[in-house]
Amino acid sequence: MSNTDKDLVLYDxxxxxxxxxxxxxxxxxxxxxxxxxxxxxLWQRAAADPGVKVIVLRGxxxxxxxxxxxxxxxxxxxxxxxxxxxxxxxxxxYLGYSLRWRNVPKPSIAAVxxxxxxxxxLLAWPCDLIVAADDAKFSDPVVAMGIGGVEYHGHxxxxxxxxxxxILFTGRSIKAxxxxxxxxxxxxxxxxxxxxxxxxLALGIAAKDAFALRMAKRAVxxxxxxxxxxxxxQAVFDIHQLGHGNAVxxxxxxxxxxxxxxxxxxxxxx
Length: 270
Hints:
This is Enoyl-CoA hydratase. Pfam families: ECH_1. InterPro entries: ClpP/crotonase-like_dom_sf (IPR029045), Enoyl-CoA_hydra/iso (IPR001753). By secondary structure, this protein is an alpha/beta fold. Helices cover 46% and strands 16% of the residues. It has 10 helices and 10 strands. Helix 2 crosses helix 9. The chain has a single domain, classed as Alpha-Beta Complex (2-enoyl-CoA Hydratase, Chain A, domain 1). A hairpin with a 2-residue loop joins strand 2 and strand 3. The strands form 2 sheets. A 7-stranded mixed sheet has the order 1-2-3-4-5-7-10, with helices on both faces.
């Protein structure tokens, strides 16, 4: 397996399957800007490679992703950033990346074990299929921080309106068996069998005609878009930005990225 970007994300291609592995197991694959940029680069690499027919996204260690990395920097200091800077940063690395991954014209599978919290949903939900280990738990507890939900609002589409409200209002987790019952995941398997099950599924898909797969994915995504998916996600993202001001009062966290990450991201954007 080849390493990229200081080993934050790993990439491997075999048998027509590109496997992208989050590689910060020491922090439960928490996401910082460097990891997200590396991840997006590998999604685009897989999309452009004619030898890749299926993309698998997984996380090393016990957890798929614990979401945004909130550990770095002074949480009050980001008040000095303008609304425009915060909006542009999140529009790219949260909403923008998730929509771009959703629309990659190749089938994708998320292999989820352990925690998939808040920002972790921004990685799993854009994938076409989700295979969950029996220890997987999905949650978006950010209402407790004073924000109405993470930036990519797949909640209503993935959960249905009433369960989406319950999950957001209470912050409780959805366990793997419940996720299967409501159709948010395709399969639940023992955690020790997760990688093997996902590989078998990916191999079966990779055996199909690439253009037919592309058209099948496009048909489903376009049907969702006709129903308003992308427009709704963008509208909720705009509302989400108002939550940063409220979060200062509720939790002292005006943005859901560490200060160091925000500084480097704004510098990168110029």
